[in-house]
Design a protein that fits this description.
single chain; 259 residues; alpha+beta; Heat Shock Protein 90; 2 domains; globular
Amino acid sequence: MEGLQETRTVPRFNGRNPHPDSHTCPLSEEALNLWKIMSHDLRGSLISIMATLKLLNRGYYGRMDEGVENQVKELLGRVTQLIGISEECLGRALSADGHLDIRQEVLDLRKDIIHPVLEELSSEIKDHHLRIDNRLEHVPASRIPIKANKVWLKTIFRNLLKNAIQYGDSGGTIAFGFEIRGSSYRLNVYNSGKPVPEGWRDKLFTKVSPMRNNDNRSHGMGIGLYLIKRIIQKLGGNIWYEAKEHGSNFVLTLPIEAH
């Protein structure tokens, strides 16, 4: 806040023993389990609220006047964002002890993952005047099956999309690509703008990777990409960065679920 003359170091918590010179503190097993339960239960409650708001928005309970309808749409957007936050918390809790707990199920990549993440971040996309080029919409199949963990896979695409919004051009383009390569899906998230400086590219998937966006402000995005790479490798895939002349491209592979 403005006007504060004194700053304090706030300890950062994780589930592992801290380095002697660090400011991190270990979470007890009880606290970590409580974090997991609260994140899971909060997500479940928010999903129920979102379902009711969607029914209201579709007129299931009767017509609403314009003012009420706008309020419902705003609430739906806020709840969608809160679901994303709760999933981020759940993902962090599940990985806090250094072990990724990935229970897999058969999902529809387009319906269960990409569409919800785009909806969740729609206000940020609108605020930055971005154009979304979603190539998955051109896939003729009615569904794109993939065996993965829903929370983790949404975390992957949420983080990649957030990075594309934050570091890309305002008024630019974000594109989702899709190909089938043998027994794997090859996907990518591209954003127009300046590519990552060459000196930082080999540090992108490490725990700490400070970056600068177009307004030259420094941000850290390494912990997100570090966790993303671990998740993707746990799912049997891989991820890497490709610099383009007028943008950045993150490419990932994931195994195909048999039809």
